[in-house]
Structure formats: structure tokens, C-alpha cells
Amino acid sequence: MGRAPCCDKANVKRGPWSPQEDETLKNYLMKHGTAGNWITLPQKAGLKRCGKSCRLRWLNYLRPHIKHGGFTDEEDQLICTLYATIGSRQWSLIAAQLPGRTDNDVKNHWNTKLKKKFLAENTNATVCPQFSTSTPQPQVEDHVFDHKNSSESHVLRFEQTPIPNPSPLPLGSDVSGLGSSFSAPLPNEVSLLSNSISLVKEENETQWFGYHDNIEGEAFLLDFVYEDLLHNGFVSQD
DNA sequence: AATCCATACAACCGCGTGTAG
DNA sequence: TCTACACGCGGTTGTATGGAT
Is A154 helix (H, G, I), strand (E, B) or coil? Predict the structure, then answer.
């Protein structure tokens, strides 16, 4: 016995999305959101698609501010660096470091282009030399995404800022963008801290936990995140 | 011009996890 | 506490496209 299918495959369209379907889905989501249920969404929106397919299409393609293709050298380097740190088990985490990129996009880019380059160059130990196997690396444990804040019924969206060079912060060093009094915890408290963590409340009531290019001076660290960093050395999902 | 092959990207599959009842 | 359901994710597959032969 296999797993029960998430939808009736006989009655859903599969394969590439048409522009009309894209438009329908986009319009519906812009107007109504997911209402917390992707499974029933296609029916409500008038689409003959699986809910999972709708979700994927939205997240990977239709969502605003999504970038496609054209990875820069900096992005390549960052992916490479993060892959060396995290591995392939957390593509969403790696993608979170690249604004406008999706996990699927990053994963595809890695599998089609960067992997070969990485493997070839890594044999010569030239890629990401700071993450040689002899050096124990800090773990980026978690980055929370799409947390629901039930009390205020809006979504808390968390992101992380790109880590140009993810290495342990110097003892007690200031973390730019974190506000007035934040400084890097001691190494035994926090092995890795993403720099420039901030919280920005936007007009649409979506809150962004992470770096925001356009808004300066509003950055501060959420208390519970700071607590996690202090006590666990990483940010937990709780 | 036709065919083959490699590449890039979109989409699907199925499992792990969280959560409501 | 248990169960069913939905979500999110990584791995994999399918397909379109372009270059080489």
C-alpha cells in the first residue's frame, strides 16, 4: 500500500502551466490569499490543478520579486559556500540567503552548473577554502519561514540576510544593523550568527525578519531570536 | 536538414513534520 | 494520546531548447 494521493490525479491537469492558469492563480491569491488551505484553493480559484502544484507554481514562479536565471558570481560563490557548510539537506535555507531566489531554483542551478564546478575545483581545494574538511564548521541550524502569528492573524515572514563570508563573529563585536546594543555573543554561546538580522514591519502587515535593503535604521533583533542565539547558539523553530 | 546529445528549468513525487480535532 | 490531514521540503523526472555532428 502506497501513500494516499493528495488529489484525484484523474481529474487534475498536469504538466506546464498556461498563461491563463498563471493569471487565474495569481489573481486569486492576490485577492484571497491561500486562506490557509492549498488543497481546496484550486477548486475555489476554478483551476483543475492539484493544490500542491498550485503552491509550487506560486512559490517558484508567480510570487512577486522572484528572480529567474542569471545567477551572479557572488550568488554562485554564496551557494557554494553555504553548500559546503550545510549540504544538500537544506536548500530552502540556502535559498533564504539569496533574495528573490527559490529553493527549487537554487537546487536546479546547483545540480546543473555548480555541482560540477564545485566537485572539479574542490578536488583542488580552491573553492570555499575556508571550509576545508579539517576545520569544524558552525552549523546554521534554522531559519524560520512563514510563521503564523495567530494572535494578530497575519503572517510573520522570516528571512536571513546573505552571509558573504559565514564565519564565526569576532568576540563581542558589534553587529551592524542590529540596533543600538547588540553585540556578538561569546563563541561558546553562539557559534554562528547571521549578521544584519533585522525586523521590518511593512505596510501590508507582513513582517520580515532579516535584512532589508530599502529600510534603514529600523533593524532590531527579536527577543526570542536573541534568546535562542544566546542559549542554543542558533535560532530554533519554536 | 535531420538526428543526437547535453543542458536548463519546470513540475511532480513521496516522505517527514506540524497541528487541529 | 492518537489520528488524519495539510504543508513544506529534497530528490527525481519530464520536457523544451540549443549546439554539435
Answer: strand
